[in-house]
Design brief:
This protein has 390 residues and is mainly α. The chain contains 15 helices and four strands. It has a four-stranded mixed β-sheet with strand order 2-1-3-4, sandwiched between helices. The protein starts with a helix and ends with a helix. The radius of gyration is 31 Å and the shape is elongated.
């Protein structure tokens, strides 16, 4: 039995890896994902960055003495004596970054203002253009300064004004939350893509070419043929998925540049990666088995790919649940549902809340489903009506 399974595996692996174009098609997604995500990250970073030596252009109407002393703290130069309407047009045209409009006798109005009077406080108007990165940067900087000044003048207490680190979340927590949010969905998509790229060609392709009949007349049990194909396809699918996953993980720091500076997959231990590998391998077995069974019904590769579409939607839908599930479940019931259990385990590993028993149950359930699929596929190989359908 072992020799028969190994023979089928060797045949399938030799057929795929003997074709250089097939090898390139397996590895290319990871390279393309890395290049694309890195380019997107660089593009987004440059789109929202302001040159370090950039000096925003600011004009003010009715600039009071208090602000003449305060605004230089931003390092911005402010021009006065301008026409308000012309300045607004300049901001609209993005030739001016900011326009400040102060009410007449601003300092005297602030000093005489009574908070309990119910009368609207003196209002400072700040005009900016959100379509301009430089204008938005200047606006945010100036608003922060004005808010701080207003707090000193009117509020009876300060909030987080001591300059300390009030955010107690660690860099690992931040990165883990992001990975747990995004990676289960991406992994499910990559795993499905790897399986769908090889499984239909292996079974429906052999039916279409007529070569499956030659294999079935050999003195090898149909269950050995089914298991050998599934294991070989799982190996190839894992390589494809690993390529795409590595491209994504390596490009995430560039993708998140300026948003999450500590974004790195190095926060996970060897144990985390081993648990993740076990989950991914068992997930690939389930996906390959499902697509192989559907491909056995198909007469052509194109038809098999059509039959596999529901599996893609299922994989994507389950991957998206990681975004709304509030983290990995700490109960065992979700880990008994094939594929959904994989998403739960992935979310748990990435968020540092993995349930080891849940991983064991997930792998056991997925392997059991695979073995059941092997039995189903072997029986389909025994059916001339299915295998030789035209």
């Amino acid at each position: 039995m072992k020799n028969s399974i190994f023979t089928i595996m060797k045949k399938e692996l030799a057929r795929f890896f003997g074709d250089k174009r097939m090898v390139v098609s397996i590895l290319m997604p990871g390279v393309l994902v890395y290049i694309l995500y890195s380019f997107m990250g660089g593009a987004m970073g440059s789109a929202f960055d302001v040159d370090e030596d950039y000096a925003p252009t600011i004009q003010a109407v009715g600039l009071p003495a208090s602000m003449e002393a305060l605004l230089p703290q931003t390092g911005f130069a402010v021009m006065t004596g301008v026409d308000e309407e012309e300045a607004k047009e300049a901001v609209t045209a993005q030739t001016l970054d900011l326009l400040l409009v102060f009410p007449e006798e601003f300092d005297q109005s602030v000093a005489a203002y009574d908070i309990s009077s119910g009368i609207p406080a003196p209002q400072v108007e700040v005009y900016y253009n959100s379509a301009s990165t430089n204008s938005t940067f200047a606006y945010q900087s100036l608003i922060g300064l004005l808010d701080a000044y207003e707090a000193q003048m009117a509020n009876k207490f300060d909030v987080n004004a001591g300059g300390g680190d009030y955010d107690l979340a660690t860099a690992e927590d931040t990165a883990g939350s992001f990975f747990a949010l995004m990676m289960p969905m991406l992994l499910m998509i990559f795993l499905y893509s790897g399986c769908a790229a090889v499984a239909p060609e292996s079974i429906a392709g052999e039916k279409e070419r007529g070569t499956i009949a030659t294999m079935l007349i050999t003195p090898i049990r149909r269950s050995d043929i089914a298991l050998g194909k599934i294991l070989a396809l799982a190996v190839i699918s894992m390589i494809s998925a690993a390529s795409s996953t590595m491209g994504t993980v390596l490009s995430l720091p560039k993708m998140m540049d300026g948003v999450a500076d500590e974004m790195s997959a190095s926060i996970y231990s060897i144990q985390d990666y081993l648990l993740l590998a076990a989950v991914i391998l068992s997930t690939v077995l389930v996906l390959v088995t499902l697509i192989s069974i559907l491909s056995a019904f198909a007469k052509t590769i194109k038809e098999a790919q059509t039959y596999a579409m529901p599996v893609m939607l299922l994989a994507m839908g389950l991957g998206i649940t990681a975004m709304f599930g509030g983290g990995a479940s700490q109960e065992l019931t979700p880990y008994c549902i094939p594929l959904y259990n994989s998403v739960q385990c992935m979310a748990g590993v990435f968020s540092f809340s993995v349930l080891p028993v849940g991983v064991a149950v997930t792998v056991g359930i997925n392997v059991a489903v695979t073995l059941l699929g092997v039995v189903v596929l072997a029986r389909m190989f025994n059916s001339e009506k299915i295998i030789f359908a035209r």
